[in-house]
Amino acid sequence: MARDLDNDPRVTAAEEAIQKILLDLEEEVGASVDLVDVDTHNFCQLRTSIFLNPERKRV
Questions:
Q1: What are the pLDDT tens digits along the chain (59 aa)?
Q2: Most buried among 2, 4, 26, 38, by the most CB within 10 A?
Q3: How far is CA 24 from CA 6, 14, 17, in A?
């Protein structure tokens, strides 16, 4: 039986935590986050790349 994880409050909380981390990073470095790439194939060796744009753009 498949579960509806899109509406799981734990997923929502994790998304909000990630968003806060990225917003804090933008404030610290003065650039906007353009792209975040996370390779989840192997969580023991999780690879994350964050691509920044030096021109801040808030929407």
A1: 457 887 889 989 999 999 999 999 999 999 999 999 988 888 788 889 999 998 876 65
A2: 26
A3: 25, 15, 11
Q: Structure tokens of 38?
A: 């996370």
d(CA 11, CA 47): 20
Which 3 state secondary structure label does DSSP give 1?
coil
pTM for the full predicted model: 0.74
48 contact partners, CB below 8 Å, separation of at least 6: 36, 37, 38, 39
